[in-house]
Amino acid sequence: MTGKWIDISQTLHNGIAEWPGDTPFTYEVAFAKADTGSVNIGKMTTSTHMGTHIDAPFHYDDAGIKVHELPIDVYIGKAVVIDVSGLDSVGYSNLEAHDFGGAERVLLKTSSRPNADVFPQSYTVLRPDIGPLLKERGVKLIGVDTPSVDSEHSKTLDAHHALYANDVLILENIVLDEVEQGEYELIALPLPIAGADGSPVRAVVRRLGK
Ligand SMILES: N[C@@H](CC(=O)c1ccccc1NC=O)C(=O)O
Ligand SMILES: [Zn+2]
Ligand SMILES: [Zn+2]
Q: Which residues bind substrate (predicted)?
C-alpha cells in the first residue's frame, strides 16, 4: 500500500531567499495578454541553486559532469527519510546504526531551516565522513532540508567533495516538515539544462508499504 504524493519542494516566488550574494528569484509577466491579444507570457530569473534543486558535479569541479549529463535514474526511486533533527552536524556516527532498507537515496530531516524566505543564520551541515558510509551502503543521492551540505562560509566545501569522492549526488532545500521517518518513493527530476551546474527540481515523495 503506497501513500499519497507529498510535495517536498520549496515554492519559487518573488521573496524566496537566495544564497547570500547569489541571483535572486524573480517572476514577472513580460508580455501581457492585453498587449499580445492572446496570451500572458512570463519571464523568470533565478540562480541554479534557488529553492529545491540538485547540484551537478560541475558546481564544485570544473571537470565535473553537468546537469544534462546526470544519470536520471538517481532522481527516481526508493528513498529513506531519516530524522536527524537537533544536530549541528551529521556524519558517520549519526547514521551507521540506521537501516537504509537498501534505498539508494537518503533524505535527511534536520529541521534546521524552517522558512524558505529567510536565509538561516545557521543550519545543520554534513561531516565529510558521511561519504564513505553512504558509498558502503550503495547510496547514490543525499537530500537535505538545508541550503547546502556545507556551511555558508565554507570555501573548501569538504562535504560536497567527500560526497563527490564517494559517487553521491546532492539534492538541497527539500521540505520535510510533513514527512516522517520511513521508506518512500522519490521523484526529483532536474531540468535538461545544457552545461549547467545545478537545476531546480519539483521533488515529491510517497510512503512505501506500512
Ligand atoms: N546550494 C549551493 C550553495 C552554494 O554553494 C552557493 C550558491 C551560490 C553562491 C555561492 C555558493 N557557495 C559558495 O560560495 C550549494 O551547492 O551548496
Ligand atoms: Zn546547490
Ligand atoms: Zn550543494
A: 19
